[in-house]
Structure formats: structure tokens, C-alpha cells
Amino acid sequence: MTMNSPATALAATPYGAPSAAVALFRSLGDPARLAILRRLADGEARVTDLVTCVGLAQSTVSAHLSCLRDCGLITSRPQGRATLHALAHPELLDLLAAAEQLLAATGEAVDLCPTYGTHPAPAAEEPAR
Questions:
Q1: Mean pLDDT, to the nearest integer, of 63-86?
Q2: What's the rounded Cα separation, in Å, for the pair 50 and 17?
Q3: Residue 87, C-beta contacts closer than 8 angstroms, at least 6 positions apart
Q4: Rounded mean pLDDT of the chain?
Q5: Among 49, 35, 41, which residue's Cα sits nearest to residue 86?
Q6: Mean pLDDT throughout 41-66?
Q7: How far apart are CA 115 and CA 27, in angstroms?
Q8: Which among 50, 98, 54 has a CA at the least distance from the CA of 74?
Q9: What is the pTM of this model?
Q10: Among residues 89, 115, 110, 113, which one has the least CA distance to residue 99?
């Protein structure tokens, strides 16, 4: 994804970042949606398969699937009484692989981030006076 392509240059955030890119990364930023996408990387799945995978209620998984479908990241097709969900664009696998490479390169730094990390580094102790 190039940040200067005509499609992303049309709408920008107040900071100059392409708003479509911001929306994409926000859609990927939810742990449940990311888990769903990682499962769909292995192939099509039904809602019940995804409920088992992520451990959330069916209604919650359906809401996340709706978000991902609205973002154009997944497709859905009926099969009998069920609906099968799949990745809409194989390029998403490249993005996820690049993210894994970046995380491997940064080590634990992202996970220790005090703003977004899940394991923030302990605060430095102030010296005794």
C-alpha cells in the first residue's frame, strides 16, 4: 500500500495521514477481529467455527464479521443454512506477515509500549531523597 496513491490521497486526517489507511489499521487493531482474520487466513469458516476460535458470543463475532465485511476485508457466501466467510484480498496475508516480521525485529518493544502494549514496562523508581 502506497501512502501517496490517488485513492488514499483524496481524504486525509488533520495530521496528513490517509484516512483510509487509518481506518484499515483501526479495523485490524481489535484483538478479536485480528484473531478472526488470522483464522480466515487458513481458509473459509462459519460463524460457529469462529466462535470456537475466538471464544466470544455468536452475536459479538457476527458484529466483528460485519465490520470486516463493511471494510472490504472479508467476503461471505451462503452454503446451505450456513454462511462461509473468507478473506477478500490475499494481500492481507502479506500485510499480516510483514507485521509479524516487524514484531520479530522490534522484540518486546511494542508489547512494552506504555500506551498500547499489553505488558507495559514497570515505571522507573524515583531515587530516594
A1: 96
A2: 33
A3: 37, 40, 41, 73, 74, 75, 93
A4: 85
A5: 41
A6: 96
A7: 18
A8: 50
A9: 0.76
A10: 110
The answer for 35, left when phi > 0, alpha when psi is -120 to 50, beta otherwise, is alpha
| CB-CB neighbours of 33 under 10 Å | 22
Give me the pLDDT at residue 66, please.
Answer: 96
**50/37 Cα distance (integer angstroms):** 10
Cα torsion angle, 23, 24, 27, 29, sign: negative
C-alpha cell at 33: 477481529
Helix spans in the chain (H): 6-9, 19-28, 31-40, 47-54, 58-70, 91-106
Grid cell for residue 100: 509479524
Contacts of 38 (CB under 8 A, 6+ apart): 96
Q: What are phi and psi of 97, to 5 degrees?
A: -65, -40
d(CA 72, CA 18): 17
